[in-house]
Amino acid sequence: MQIHIDKIGSAVSPIKPQKALNLSTGRQSVAVGDVVAVRALSESVTYGNLELPSGRLARINAGDVLLGVLGKRRALKGFVGDVPETVAAGDKLHLLNMGGVIGECKGHHSSLSDAIEVEVIGMACDEIGLTLNIGDAALQPSDDLKVNVPVVMVGGSCMNSGKTVAAVEIIRQAANAGLKVAGAKLTGIACLRDTLNMEDHGAFVTASFLDCGLPSTVDCGDLAPMAKSILNHLNDLGPDLIVVELGDGIVGGYGVDTILKDADIRGAVSSFIFCASDYVGVIGGVEILKQTGIEIDVVAGSVTDSQMGEDFVREQLGLNAGNARRDGKRLYEMVKQTFDRSTLSVSV
Known about the structure:
The chain has 348 residues and is α/β, with parallel strands linked by helices. The chain is built from eight helices and 20 strands. A hairpin with a 4-residue loop joins strand 9 and strand 10.
C-alpha cells in the first residue's frame, strides 16, 4: 500500500525519505533502524513534539501519520524502550524520543507523562518490498583511526549534566579565535538538536552516530569502530579542531565505555572535559575514568554553575574547573592549553 506522511522524524533523515511511501503491512521480523509509519493515538503535554529533518519542532496531534525508525532507549531521566521482534499493521508501540525513535516503552522518569502511543500502519519499503533502514546510506565502521588535529572530548556523569553547553561554548570560542571547528556526537539517541546547536555556535560541519545508521547506541556492542569512522570522516574535511560530545554518562546504557576503552581513541584525545551535577559525580568520574587510563583536564558542567562548586573542584580535588555559562572564554583558555600546537594549521 501507499500512504502520505504528515510528519517525518529527524531520525529518518539519513535516507532522505519522501512523504509518499510504499508500506508493507503484514507481520514481519524487524531490526533496529528499520523505518516505520505509525499513527499517533495520543498526545503529550511534556513530550509532545517531533523534531523534523530541518530541526524544527512540530506538535504531534492525535491522528497524525508519522514516519519514524525502530530503536531502543535507556534514558535515566527519560523513556526506556526496546524494539519488538516482529511488527505488523495494528500493533501498538510508543514514541521514545522527539527525533522519531519508536519502540515498546517499558518505563519513564517520574517527571514525564506517558509516552505517546502509536499504531503501526506499516514498514516503509522500496519498490520491490525490501524494508528501508537508516543504515542503508551509512558511514561504514573503521578499525583504523587517522586523525591529525586536536580532539576535545566532553563526557559526563549523566544526561543533563551540562555536556552540550560546554561543548558548544568551546566550539564558539574556538571558531571566534579563527579555527575551523568540526563537531561530533558519538553516543545517545538520534536527534539533530545537539549537532545543530554545534553548527549554530560555529562548527562548519558535524556528524553523529545517526550518520552511521544507528537510531541510538543502546546494545550496539563495541562502538569504537563507529567512533573512528566519524572522526576519520570529519578529519578528511580539513578542520583545525574536532569537539566531541559523548551523550549520556560514562556509566549507563549507551555504550560510552566501549569508546573510552579504545587505546587509539584515547591517544587521539588532546583534552578530556568532564561535566557533573555535583561533587560526588566529579569524584566518581575521576575514579571511573582512571580505570580506563583517562585523566580529566577540566571539570565543567552544572557543578561549576556556582563559584562555590568551581572553588571546591579546584581547591579540594586539585582539578582545573571552568564554567561555560559564566566565563566561556576562561574555559576555552584552559582547554586550549592542552592542544598540541604543532598540529594546528592556524595560530590559536
